[in-house]
Design a protein that fits this description.
Number of strands: 28
Strand order of the largest sheet: 1-28-3-4-5-6
Oligomer: single chain
Number of domains: 3
Largest sheet: 6 strands, antiparallel
Order of helices and strands: EEEHEEEEEEEEEEEEEEEEEEEEEEEEE
Strand content: 35-45%
Number of helices: 1
Length: 392
């Protein structure tokens, strides 16, 4: 291998969809071996989707892949073409579901728009709300999405949630849920197939945590001697995090707001995270007994730029950085980056040690194992990724 070439090897657990591998470089050659599919292949036929090996190099194009399918009749080699191309027919694979290299950056923040000019979708009155698309949405549990222009008429629609980032739970090829209660009196079921005068749309937020922790949007607050907060997408807070609230008057519980402080004028009201329940729920030390109730049943507002209830980090933990952990290496910070389906374990970054709770650069590089080659959830996939000096 030449002087400046790089190679990375390891394994990753598939989430059943787009599976992210974070590396300290962007590779130009990738190969994987799916242990889970190799174990499960016994009894498969040439029409059964069971890809055990796949590979990619730059000249194939993004979202392409070569692959090997293990069958009872022997191994079959096939081709996944880039989006819009022609892929192999045995087994039937979808173009554009191979490998994608990534360099997360603000300029590449969003995926393609899913709108009613080409794909109709609806949002139900339910808790949680159900989104149904007319064609496959190709999303995975743990992905983040954001909606725009959800007004159906001058007074009806779901503009109340347009602009909020949501971490989704996939329930089918054309359905997913968002963590928001739309089964309330001020919400109208949204349907781009039957509505007029709108181009309602949503798109995936590809890299939602380039810098973490960021600003989180609140979907529920439980008051008491401590305060429990639920956010619409992962908050990426840690125990000991210092936090501040920004809640518009209409949502209630404004006593949590950092300003104004009626007891000590000019001094912000901050709280501390005392425990983290999961990626979207935490408890803070503020005694909110007697505070006004939090309410998401907001009146329809047919205008852009609506302000939503937010919580954000304002400082570091008092005790400093991560513990040395008995002579082992310092752990790398972890974040829920939109490709993690677990609600309890984030994905490690490549930034090395960081102060707990501090804002740190969570940008990343690497590649995505697409839905056509990622197998099923919990499959263990071995990978080798190379960045070579010469790529011709």
């Amino acid at each position: 291998m030449a002087e400046y070439s790089r190679i990375a090897t390891g394994s990753v657990t598939s989430n059943g969809g787009q599976t992210l591998v974070i590396l300290p470089f962007t590779p130009n050659f990738i190969e994987i071996f799916n242990r889970g599919r190799a174990v499960a292949q016994n009894g498969n036929t040439t029409t059964t989707f069971c890809i055990t090996k796949a590979w990619w190099y730059t000249d194939m194009g993004q979202t392409a892949a070569g692959y090997t399918q293990t069958t009872t009749a022997g191994d079959y080699t096939g081709w996944i073409a880039p989006t819009g191309g022609t892929s192999s027919s045995i087994p039937t694979v979808v173009s554009g579901t191979g490998f994608t290299t990534i360099q997360a950056a603000l300029a590449l923040q969003y995926g393609p728009v899913f709108n009613n000019t080409s794909n109709a979708f609806s949002i139900s009155k339910a808790n949680p709300a159900v989104v149904t698309t007319s064609t496959a949405h190709n999303l995975t549990t743990g992905n983040w999405v954001i909606f725009q222009n959800l007004s159906q008429s001058a007074t009806t629609g779901m503009q109340q949630i347009a602009g909020i980032p949501f971490m989704i739970t996939v329930t089918g090829a054309t359905t997913f849920t968002i963590p928001w209660n739309t089964n309330q009196s001020n919400y109208t079921a949204f349907n781009t197939a039957t509505s007029t005068g709108n181009v309602g749309s949503f798109k995936q937020i590809l890299y939602p945590v380039l810098y973490a922790p960021g600003v989180s949007f609140i979907s529920a607050i439980t008051t008491g001697t401590t305060t429990t907060v639920v956010t619409t997408a992962p908050h990426n807070f840690v125990q000991g995090q210092e936090i501040a609230f920004r809640i518009p008057q209409a949502y209630g519980t404004t006593q949590l707001n950092s300003l104004p402080n009626l007891v000590i004028p000019g001094s912000p009201i901050y709280g501390y995270v005392t425990s983290v329940t999961n990626s979207t729920t935490f408890v803070c030390n503020i005694n909110s007994t007697g505070y006004t109730a939090f309410a998401t049943n907001q009146a329809f507002a047919n205008y852009p730029g609506q302000t939503f209830p937010q919580v954000l980090a304002v400082g570091d933990v008092n005790t400093g950085g991560y513990l040395y952990n008995g002579g082992m290496l310092y752990p790398s910070p972890s974040v829920f980056n939109g490709y993690v389906s677990s609600t309890t374990v984030g994905a490690s970054t490549i930034n090395g040690p960081a102060i707990q709770g501090a804002y740190y650069n969570a940008t990343f590089q690497g590649f995505i194992i697409g839905t056509g080659i990622s197998g099923t959830s919990t499959d263990v996939i071995d990978y080798r990724a190379i960045l070579s000096d010469i790529n011709s």
